[in-house]
Amino acid sequence: MTPHYLFSLELDRLPSLESDFLIVGSGIAGLFAAYKAGKLGSVLVVTKQRAEDSNTERAQGGIAAAVDETDSPVLHLEDTLEAGAGLCDAKTVEILVTEGPLRVMELVELGVRFDREGSAWDLGREGAHRRRRILHASDATGGEVARALIRECRSDPRIILREGCCLVDFLRHPRSGRCVGALMLDSQTGGFVVCRAPVVIAATGGAGQLYRGTTNPTVATGDGAAAAYRAGAELMDMEFVQFHPTVLAMPNAPHFLISEAVRGEGALLRNVRGERFMPRYHQMAELAPRDVVTRAIIREMQETQANHVLLDISQSEPDHFQVRFPNISSTCREYGLDLGKGYIPVAPATHYIMGGIKTGSNGETNTPGFYACGEVACSGVHGANRLASNSLLEGLVFGARAVTAGWRYLQQSMEQPLRLTGYLDGRQDWTSLTADLYDWQETAERVRTIMWDKAGIIRQGQGLAQAAVELDRIDREIASLAPTRSAVEAVNLLTLGRLAVAAAQLRTESRGGHFRSDFPSRDDVYWLRHIIFEV
Ligand code: SIN
To answer: Mean of the pLDDT values across residues 264-291?
Structure first.
């Protein structure tokens, strides 16, 4: 496999940084990996914006873990497999649910304050979980975890946390094929920087920005997955996209998540006529798997010709709601919603990408020295549909495992260290570019609109074919590439959009986060298989 790089560059002329571990991304997976790696060697964590700017920071509901005596990893495993709709890797899920509680307790030791009820954990419930097993810190769990991990990383002298560094490409040694670092765009200098390391861990998070409506922050542009693909890694399950059912739907409000935990505390879904509808769609009603709730909401919106449904919170005393969900309450109020009326208008939006860099259970990829963990990875724990609150857990468990495996690899490869020198043969000779010829934000917006309209919650063959044609057209229009963050992001979104559409065209059935109205049934005879792309 020959890697495809974005830019042609003479590497030896560029500033460079060296470490034992290079970790790209500062969500829970990257930060926990950094915390672990800091105990073993030198660590450079690079992140595109501020360390806090990640999906982790926004995670409300919490971390699923079988920590209650009435629960067990086996029950958690069964719920995860059920949600995953036949495509989970059971062995990897077993690792997730058995190691998960141990990793969560490490967070507690690091000072993360999950809510308690007396001496017991105050466990929440979310969709498709048959037990209360969600550890949470009020309704801002991710923020609490991120703060503790960032503090820990900043206080460790072996860890350097560098903000404002946008991943351009992962670098592979031309002869050995090993991953030996990454090329970054550094916002401090406005130029390129080469980060060299024998162990490179992609923890760049998701790609919710592929879609017009998303709960994800603007940094979630799939950079790690797209760069890994260019470097020769395999991408798997790209057709499986999770749409969160309940996202605030008010004019001028952002796509702000209304946690599934709200339904876990008893809130009901009603259409705009006031009719409760979920019992008609699934026996678990409001706590059915996310894909089921999302499609039910879309159906009700269509039938009532409304752009939202209502989340009825009237069963909860306003004071209680405010205490349990302070972050949600204050955001709703900020956008003018009177919670005293007892409902929140909601509609689905893109939330999580199940697909990503194909890894084994130690975060290893097909490329020596290159590991992936967290949302950017596809280890098989989520299958076709991620179980609620399993993603923070995944970041912890597989972030730690990637470090252990990377350290083992580093020690073996110490005998024959390899350095990447010379010329990087990319697609664009950036030095010849004098001006940025494109409006990259507009390019990204076009991709988002195509994806939302034609490859969104309900897909069908004709729409997907049109999406493929339109994305190809955009690709042909891009004649040159500027060395800027927005150019790299737009190209990454385009790459992933094309792969997601191609996978959705191929998968002629409906399963989990992939629903085709022209193939509405699940086909376990042919489609109990994964779609994998490689350059
Ligand atoms: C939520 O709080 O509903 C989101 C949790 C998750 O995405 O796992």
So the answer is: 96
Distance 426 CA to ligand 1 centre (A): 39
* DSSP H/E element including 162: strand 159-162
61 lines ligand 1 (CB under 6 A): yes
- What is the pLDDT, as a whole number, of residue 436? 64
Bin 356: left if φ > 0, else alpha if -120 < ψ < 50, else beta.
Answer: left
Ligand 1: does its nearest atom lie under 6 Å from the Cβ of 391?
yes
The residue with tokens 């009820």 is: 117
SS (H, E, C) 15-51: CEEECCEEEECCCHHHHHHHHHHCCCCCEEEECCCCC
* Strand ranges across the sheet with 268-270: 241-248, 343-353, 309-312, 268-270
- Interhelix angle for 485-506 vs 223-230, to 10°? 80
Residue 62 Cβ < 6 Å to ligand 1:
no
Catalytic residue (choose from 103, 178, 230, 290): 290
Average pLDDT of span 21-44: 98
- Return the residue whose CA atom lies nearest to atom 8 of ligand 1: 389
- pLDDT-derived band at 434, boundaries 50, 70, 90: very low
Q: Are strands 377-378 and 356-358 parallel, antiparallel or unpaired?
A: parallel
C-alpha distance across the termini of the chain, in Å: 7
Lowest mean pLDDT among 245-254, 430-439, 481-490, 515-524: 430-439
In the CATH hierarchy, which fold is given to the domain comprising 245-349?
A: Flavocytochrome C3; Chain A, domain 1 (3.90.700)
pLDDT tens readout for residues 81-116: 999 999 999 999 999 999 999 999 999 999 999 999
**pLDDT for res 416:** 72
Query: What pTM was estimated for this model as a whole?
Result: 0.96
**Is residue 261 in contact with ligand 1, taking CB distance under 6 Å?**
yes
What's residue 428's pLDDT? 66
60 CB less than 6 Å from ligand 1? yes
**Residue 290 designated active-site:** yes
Q: Is the pLDDT of residue 37 over 70?
A: yes
Distance 351 CA to ligand 1 centre (A): 9
Establish whether residue 20 lines the binding site of ligand 1, counting it when its CB lies within 6 angstroms of any ligand atom: no
**Second CATH level (architecture) for the domain 13-240+354-412:** 3-Layer(bba) Sandwich (3.50)
- Residue 447 to residue 441: CA distance in whole angstroms: 10
Q: What secondary structure letter does DSSP report for 386?
A: P
State the DSSP H helix or E strand holding residue 236, giving kind and residue range, or none if neither. strand 235-236
Where in the chain do CATH 3.50.50.60 domains reside?
A: 13-240+354-412
* Ligand 1 centroid, distance to 256 Cα (angstroms): 12
Q: Distance (Å, rounded) from C-alpha 272 to C-alpha 72?
A: 39
- Amino acid identity, position 166: C
Is the pLDDT reported for residue 152 higher than 90? yes
Dist. CA 125 → ligand 1 center (Å): 11
CA of residue 387 to ligand 1 center, whole Å: 9
